Amino acid sequence: MNTHINTFLNSFLKDKLSILLMVVPFVFLTACSTTNTDTAEGTNNASVEDRTGGDANASGDGSYEGQTGGYNESGMNDGTAINGQSYGDDPLSDPNSPLSVRTIYFEYDSITINSEGQLALNAHAEYLSLNPTKTFIIEGHTDERGTREYNLSLGERRAKAVADFLTASGVQSQQIEVRSFGEENPVALDHSESAWQLNRRVEILY
Amino acid sequence: MKLNVRSSLFFILFSYFAFFTHQAVALLEVDITGGFQSATPIAIVPFSWSQTGKAPVDIASVISSDLTRSGVFSPLSFNQLPERPKIDGAINFPRWKNTEAENLVIGQVTAIGQGRYEVKFKMLDIFTGKNSLEYQYNVEAKNLRRVAHQISDKIFQELTHSRGAFDTLIAYVVVNNDVNVKKRVYTLAVADSDGYAEQIILKSRKPIMSPSWSPNGKRLAYVSFEKNRSVVYMQELKSGKRKTIAQFKGINSAPVWSHDGKRLAMTLSKDGNSEIYVMYTASGVLQRITNHYGIDTEPAWSPDGRSLIFTSDRAGKPQIYQVAINQKGRAGAPKRLTYEGSYNAGASFSPDGKSLVFITRDKGSFRVATLELATRYLQVITHSKLDESPSFSPNGKMILYATELRGRGILEAIAVDGSHSPQRLRVLSGDVREPAWSPYRSR
Fold first, then answer.
1. For chain A: N or C, fewer Cβ within 10 A?
2. Up-side HSE of residue B131: CA atoms within 13 Å toward CB?
3. Amino acid B70: pLDDT
4. Residue B223 near residue B180, CB atoms below 8 Å
5. Who among A149, A157, A185 is closest to B181 (CB)?
6. What is the pTM of this model?
7. Closest chain B C-alpha to A194 CA, distance in angstroms
8. Which chain A residue is nearest to residue B360, measuring alpha carbons?
9. What residues does each domain of chain B span?
10. Distance between CA A192 and CA B11 in Å, rounded?
11. Confidence (pLDDT) at B26
């Protein structure tokens, strides 16, 4: 977690996105009020989660159709490597940008976005507000504990909490597609608290 | 008794391994943990075979394995059999009376040409010397195992007066849980209740979950993420033909058939968040059943089709609720069924409608529990940590569920009263989960 904050601060120091300094305080206030609204709606106390791994490039992999009976390996996509040297004008391609933080982690039993998550989401909100034609996916995941179907709903609720945060910060709802994989896509396969921490997450997929 | 179980297990295990080499993903029965102290001894003599060499299926061994798994019977080991009588031969009853068994099963398999076989068996009461069962079958080789399961059902019925559930199928999902998500492969498969005769229903690089049997056992509804989001499909097992049932915006999940086969209850979030809906499958008419900002999911029908139970966190934590259903949809306000504990989810009814099975959080672990509806008696029946997807066997005697053992996803089946240790089913590599026990098969 600290790594993410450090990366974020570093990017400030490097002044790649100095405009953020002016905008962040405003967005942050908005964000806080959004969180409170969530609580008022009673959506703040989600339940248990489950495992299953995140697929950071899931959106690039959609051409695979399940096969009934047979099995086909075609249509798999390894994703596109990012050339770190030439990201040009697009901060999305900049590994040092706060936009490179694309995973928001959650506490057990919770859909509350912590301050670290809010910092990252503020950057995404600003970028997406300035690029209103840009669409993206918010994908919710849980840890493996509890039932799969319940976790599918919990993952969606988590993703919607992130979507609400972003729309409250100026992102248009038409830009957003919310998905949930519940516990079905764990990034960490252990059956331990450290694995569960990594699996309770929302991924922003551009 | 323990010794008996072990030595016959060795034989069973051996034959499972031999079989596995022909299978892509096959389930493997590994363990019947502990002995069944209360199990009834029974003598099952290897069936005689008309040709030289080995019979295509060792029917007696399949029957022994079935009856052992039930926890109700403990077949004598081979070296405890005082003789191996033929079906029409003489039987030395005084010698059998010296064994612990009260019943004796003998039979024969005859090749009758054109790939067909005649199977005869009878069961005798060792004390009276009288036949209690006598049947004959004429089948193709591919149905020999099924005949063995049907014989197990007849023995079980005769001796326990409850219907056996050996001639049934289970559906399940296997995943090679590769660290690299792109290398994961999910397989939805169906096999006999002992894990043999596996058929692949669907393979995908994306998660598959929640298989649910149609009441006639001919179709499965399930959830597949092959389009990168949850979509509900219905697939005919024989033809492999499938139909998209629900791919609305948001979650499409938790399909479960009504007992008349006409309606599917499911969870959709198309109207904002997870709610229960009922779809009439012939017309596609959709009825919304719940309306709450909390999570409502995991619907299951009562056996009379007049109500649904579901999981909801409307009171803060997930608990089980019940709502009456009629032709027009919801017929009354949902009422809460579980109050004990902070997490009760994924419930389904026993076949007699008198109790529920679900996952409960018990001392920080997620375990299988039953609730007797009349008395509200909640009993935790497992001791594991990460149980999921419990359901009753069609005869209501066993509960099948998924759990984790030493880092691997396995299936376990346990007697409803939790009276003996579970039997385990696992795959050689990867995780197996999402078990769904089929209804009784039509003969």
1. N
2. 9
3. 83
4. no
5. A185
6. 0.81
7. 14
8. A146
9. 2-160, 169-437
10. 37
11. 55
Largest CA distance in chain B: 73
User: Which residue type, as a one-letter code, is found at position A26?
Assistant: F
What local confidence, expressed as pLDDT, does residue B22 receive?
Answer: 37
Check the CA dihedral B13-B16-B21-B27 and report its sign. Answer: negative
Where does B169-437 sit in CATH, by number? 2.120.10.30
pLDDT in tens, B69-80: 888 899 999 999
For testing the chain A interface, which of B180, B225, B273, B434 should be mutated: the one with the most A CBs within 10 Å? B225
Backbone angles phi, psi at A3, to 5 degrees: -60, -40
The answer to whether the Cβ–Cβ distance between A54 and B205 falls below 8 Å is no
Q: Using DSSP bridges, classify how beta strands B40-44 and B103-113 pair: parallel, antiparallel or unpaired.
A: parallel
Task: For residue A189, give the nearest of B177, B297, B298 by CB distance.
Answer: B177
Assess contact for B408 and B431: CB atoms under 8 A.
yes
Task: Provide the 3-class DSSP secondary structure of residue A124.
Answer: helix
CB-based contacts of B221, cutoff 8 Å, min separation 6: B210, B211, B212, B214, B232, B233, B234, B235, B245, B255, B256, B257, B264
Among A65, A185, A191, the residue with its CB nearest the CB of B404 is A191
Contact B213, B193 (CB under 8 A): no
Q: Which residues of B touch A156 (CB under 8 A)?
A: 250-251, 269, 273-274
What is the pLDDT confidence band of residue B28, given thresholds at 50, 70 and 90? low
Containing H/E element for B11?
Answer: helix B2-20
CA separation for the pair B118, B55 (Å, rounded): 12
Cα(B197)–Cα(B202) distance, rounded to whole angstroms?
16
Q: At what angle do helices A19-40 and A115-130 cross, to 10 degrees?
A: 120
What SS3 state is found at B153? helix
For chain A, the domains span 14-57+90-205
Give CATH superfamily name and number for B2-160.
Answer: TolB, N-terminal domain (3.40.50.10070)
The residue in chain A having the minimum alpha-carbon distance to the alpha carbon of residue B294 is: A43
